Each structure stands twice: as C-alpha cells, then as structure tokens.
Automatic annotation (TrEMBL):
Keyword annotations of the record: Hydrolase, Metal-binding, Metalloprotease, Protease, Zinc
PANTHER family: PHOSPHATE-REGULATING NEUTRAL ENDOPEPTIDASE PHEX, ZINC METALLOPROTEASE FAMILY M13 NEPRILYSIN-RELATED
Source organism: Pomacea canaliculata
Name assigned to this protein: Peptidase M13 N-terminal domain-containing protein
Stretches assigned to the Peptidase M13 C-terminal domain: 454-569
Gene3D superfamilies: Collagenase (Catalytic Domain), Neutral endopeptidase , domain2
Domain Peptidase M13 N-terminal: 7-395
Annotated GO biological process: protein processing
Cofactor: Zn(2+)
One GO molecular-function entry: metal ion binding
One GO cellular component, as annotated: plasma membrane
The keyword tRNA-binding appears for this protein: no
C-alpha cells in the first residue's frame, strides 16, 4: 500500500503503490503481476516434482513425463547430437530452396508440401482442425482456417503496424541468422528472408481480425470447397491429413466442413498465383524454424533472442523453466496429478464450492435487479445462472492410475532423444485429433490443474478454477472469509458475468448455440455498454501516452464491473515501458490501474466504505452499470 495517496483520488496507487515500488521485474519477463508470481511458484513446485526419483509404485505415465523432462533438460546431450535430427526431418519434409542450389520449380507440389509440414505440426497457410459443430455441438466437424504466421498469435497485429516495426525487424534478423547457421551465405540469406517477410506481410494483410469471432463461419462441403477454390486439391489434401493410425476415417467429397474465414481463401490463392514458386517454397519451409529450438544452444539462442525482443524482456528463461513449461503443456494430466497431490487438498475444493454457491446467490439477485432486461430474457438468464457448473481444482480422473496409463500408453519417451520425443508427441496429437472426427463431441474437456487462470467456458456453461489459481494471494485457507471473498470471490463473480456478455449470451443454459435475448434487450444492453465504453475511453495511460480503447476492452471491463467489485489487489502490476504501449494497443483488458479505478468509480459501496465525497475522482456523479 501507499498511504501517502488519498484512496478517493487514486485507489490503485493507494492499494498497489507500495507493491509496484518494491516489486522486481524479472529479466525474462515484460511485466510482473500477482499472477506471474503465482506462475513462478507453480513452476518451482513442478520442477521439484519432475526431478524426484522415480517411485516403484507410481504410474508409468509419470515416468514418461520425467523422461521427457530429462531429455529436454540435458543440454550436453543436445550439443553432442547436434543438428543431425533436423537434417533427417528436412529430408522427410521436402527440399528447401535456400539450402539446395539444385532446387527448381518442379521440386514442389503445394498440397504435398503442406501435407508434409502438417505431419510435423506446422500449418503455415492452411490450418485443419477438428472441433464441435457450432450449430450442433454434439457432432465434430472439420474446420478449414487460416494458417499460422511466423511470429505467433500476434503476427497479424504486428504486420499491420508496418514492415519496419521493431518486431518485424527482429523476425527478419532471426530467420537470416538461422539460414546462415544452416550454411546459407549471408547475402543469399538476406535476399531470401526479405522475400519471405514480404510474402508473410501480404498474407497477414488478408487475414481476418480475431475480433470477428464466428461471424464469418460458413458451413459447406469439400465438393463445394473445390468449386469455390478450384486451384487447390482439397479432397486429396484433407484425406491425406486423415491418414493416421490403423483405421483412419474415410472422408468423401460430400463431407460437411466449416470454413472459418472464407474471405481469406478468396484472396489467398490469387496471392499465391502471383508469387514465384521459389519464394512460396522458401516461406513454407521457413516455418521449420519452430523445430530448431530443440537443437543446439546456438540455434536456441537465436530463437530466444527473437522472443526476448518480441516480448520486450531483458533476458530469457532458464533452461529448467523452458523444460518445465514444455512438460506441463505436453503432459497436462501428469503434471496436474503431481501438483494436486503435492499442493491442493480436498478441503480447499469444498470451501471453494461453498464460495461459488454463495456468489451465485448474490449474482442471481443482480440479475433480478437488472431493470433493463425484459421478463422473458431475465427468466432465461436466471435459469442459466442456476444451471452454471463450477469445476474446481482438477478433473477427478487425473487421480485414477488407469486413466493416466491409458492416456499415455503410446508415448514411449526416451531420456536421450529430445528432438525425436517432440516429433513423437506431434504425431500422437495429430492422431488424437483425427480420431475425434467420428466420435461424439465433448463439451467438458479436460483442463490443466496447474493453470494460473480462471475462465468461463460458454459451450458447457461452466466456470473453471484450476488448483494453480487457487493459491495465495488470491486464496488461502488461513485467510479470513472477507479476504477470500474479496480475492477469489471477485474473480468468481467476473467469470460468472462472462456467461451473459456478448459471447456468453449466444449460448443457452446447456451450452448450445441459441440467441435468447430479445431485440429490445440487445439494444438496451448496447446502451448500458456505451456508458462503460465512454468511461474507459477517457482514461489516458500516461506511461504509454495513449488513451485506452474502451470498445476493444469493453467485454472484460463489463466483467470486472459485474463481479463483486472487490478486486483491489489482484490487478497490481509492474510493466516494462515498452510493454505498456503494447498493452494499450492490443490487449483485451484495460491496463491494471484502470481495471481497479474504472470498476470502483462505479461502486457506491466503495465510495461509502472509504467516505469518498461525491464528485471526487473515485466517486464521480455519473456511474455506469450493466450488471
């Protein structure tokens, strides 16, 4: 706390000022928050558990995870093996023009090259996924989507800032250094990378904004897809992707599929037709850079330097941190089991379920008092809130030995072959996805108990609170009830609110797609929302010299306001200067100070508790409220 600040002037500085002043931003991070500190605690716990000696009576799945972690962490072994595994992978995938002076245009067929890359987990221009049908969630469908650009999830926004942004320059440098490390002359590497980045920039400019959500989704068939985009052999490509395991699903041209962004594909193939084959092949093959982080220290350092520049960090994570995070991501049921048995007891789960029940009662009162919501929609909202499920701590089956053994029976990890382990896991992920096509879709998917994140799942009408999130300072069994309700209780409230926002309102109490609000209710909601948008748009974050985008952050701002308005300390954050600008430009959340200030400005209870005079900064005369 910073008691030199009047809480009625700036409650964020009052509550978090001392914490921000005393907190230290680790060199490998762009910011430090309560949650990043919790993540570090979880990582330290997992490191100890993964490095423990094997017990004779533990499931073999746990031994598989420990073998994988050991193969990742053995840097001496990675140096001894060198780039040989990558060279074998390259021979399997296809010819890379930059690396092959004898390459010519006849060496590449687009469908075959994309198939080869997909089999090693890469989808640079076309992504095929299997997921529940949005109109019939009981059935799985093939989704045809935009591919993944080279800089990750933020690639589109980065390229839209311009070809010469700091991030694009860092990406260019990384690709150039990797080609040189692979034996390409520096001038040739420069020329090829310039063409790769130019093509990817053009691809980024035809992608669809994620903010569009499911608006552009089109249900069709493979036959119709081939009519719409006849320059690509869709039937051969999709069937090729299905050939995994002993009994691959048969896909005919009448197979129903879903295109997530038709406008992208309308522009993709004309773009590829005007792109030289060599440039296209170089771009596709450059996606292999993501596998080079599993090689020697020289390759890893090039990629880590790029990530450091991309995120604005001063250094990178240690090797053990990288390996713990990777093991946690690839063996989630195993790490969940280990973490829960070590750091989460049954009493915590029972107490959290009690808190959820009490906050549900309070939220039902909020819904009843929402005067702008019509009677039919209000009745449906109340029924949805009553039906909402809470999944607390961990999935029950992770504690069952038989479940773990079946889930990891085919993993066959080795302590000596990290690169091959990664390829094996990619194969198994692809196999699992293909096998889902003819299976009934599941709404209640498994979640990782080690996640330091609470969330609402609209397709199952459930809120999820993993054990990794149910830790100090958000929650502790030794805290008073008021502290726990003000901590994790406020988060429970905000996640419940997501069930009734612009996404949640598209699903009914069972998680099925259904529009259950009337037009009048939608119009009234927009009016209520406009107040929140205007309020946050007026906030100017001085460190970034920019105003907050109230429209982009509206969903999370409404959720913050719709919670219990007691999230004072949870949003304490200390950011690097360059990251502050990035947060204002692209994040769905308002910067931390305004998540607190904006919420409490709308709270009469806060103003009363702190005796803030009407008209003071923290108690303005005009207040906004949706829920």
């Amino acid at each position: 706390m910073d008691r030199s600040v009047n809480p009625c002037d700036d409650f964020y500085r009052f509550a978090c000022g001392g914490w921000v002043k005393d907190s230290f931003i680790p060199a490998d991070r762009p910011e430090v928050t309560i949650y990043t500190q919790m993540e570090e605690d979880v990582q330290v716990t997992l490191k100890k558990l993964l490095e423990m000696e094997e017990a004779s009576n533990e499931p073999a799945a746990i031994q598989q995870a420990r073998a994988f972690y050991a193969s990742c962490h053995d840097e001496d072994q990675l140096e001894d093996i060198g780039r040989e595994p990558f060279d074998k992978l390259l021979a399997q995938v296809g010819k890379w023009p930059s690396l092959d002076s004898a390459w010519n245009d006849t060496d590449v067929e687009l469908e075959e090259l994309l198939l080869s890359l997909s089999r090693v987990g890469l989808e640079p221009i076309i992504s095929i996924q299997i997921a529940p049908d949005p109109n019939d969630p009981s059935v799985n469908r093939i989704y045809v989507s935009e591919g993944k650009l080279g800089m990750g999830a933020e690639s589109r926004e980065i390229y839209l800032k311009g070809r010469h942004s700091r991030e694009v320059r860092a990406y260019h440098k990384m690709l150039r250094q990797l080609l040189i490390e692979l034996g390409v002359h520096s001038l040739d590497a420069e020329s090829d990378v310039e063409e790769i980045v130019e093509l990817e920039s053009r691809l980024a400019n035809i992608t669809v904004c994620p903010c569009e959500g499911t608006k552009g989704y089109k249900s069709t068939s493979i036959e119709e897809l081939e009519i719409m985009y006849p320059m690509f052999d869709w039937s051969a490509y999709i069937n090729g992707l299905m050939h995994y395991g002993s009994a691959p699903p048969q896909v005919t041209r009448s197979e129903k599929i879903i295109i997530t962004s038709p406008s992208f594909f309308q522009k993709l193939f004309p773009l590829l037709e005007t792109t030289p084959t060599r440039v296209m092949a170089n771009y596709l093959m450059s996606s292999l850079h993501s596998h080079m982080k599993h090689l020697t220290s020289r390759f890893r350092q090039i990629l880590l330097d790029f990530q450091k520049e991309l995120k604005g960090s001063k250094s990178q994570r240690t090797r053990w941190q990288e390996c713990v995070a990777l093991t946690d991501a690839l063996f989630p049921e195993v790490t969940s089991r280990l973490f829960v048995q070590s750091a989460f007891g049954p009493d915590e789960r029972a107490y959290l379920e009690e808190i959820v029940g009490n906050i549900r009662i309070a939220f039902l009162d909020i819904l009843r008092q929402a005067e702008w919501l019509g009677p039919d929609s209000k009745a449906a909202a109340i029924e949805k809130a009553r039906s909402l499920k809470a999944r607390v701590g961990y999935p029950d089956n992770i504690l069952e030995d038989e479940f773990l053994e079946n889930a990891y029976a085919e993993y066959n990890m080795s302590k000596e072959t990290f690169f091959q382990n990664m390829l094996r896991l990619t194969y198994l992920r692809n196999l699992a996805q293909v096998n889902r096509l003819r299976q009934p879709a599941e709404k209640n998917s498994l979640f990782s108990a080690t996640q330091v994140k609470a969330y609402y799942n609209p397709k199952a009408n459930e809120i999820v609170f993993p054990a990794g999130f149910i830790q100090p300072p958000v929650y502790d069994s030794v805290y008073s009830r008021s502290m726990n309700y003000g901590g994790i209780g406020s988060v429970i409230g905000r996640e419940m609110t997501h069930g009734f926002d612009e996404v949640g309102r598209e699903y009914d109490k069972a998680g099925n797609p259904q529009r259950w609000w009337s037009k009048d209710d939608l119009n009234d909601y927009e009016e209520q929302t406009e107040c929140i948008v205007d309020q946050y748009s007026c906030f100017r974050w001085k460190p970034a010299q920019m105003n907050i985008d109230g429209l982009r952050t509206r969903i999370e701002n409404i959720a913050d306001n719709g919670g219990l308005r007691q999230s004072y300390r949870l949003w304490c954050t200390n950011d690097r200067d360059e990251y502050k600008i990035e947060k204002v430009k692209s994040h769905a959340f308002a910067p931390s100070p305004y998540r607190v200030i904006g919420t409490l400005q709308n709270s009469e209870d806060f103003a009363t508790a702190f005796n803030c005079p009407l008209g003071s900064r923290m108690n303005p005369e005009k207040k906004c409220r949706v829920w």
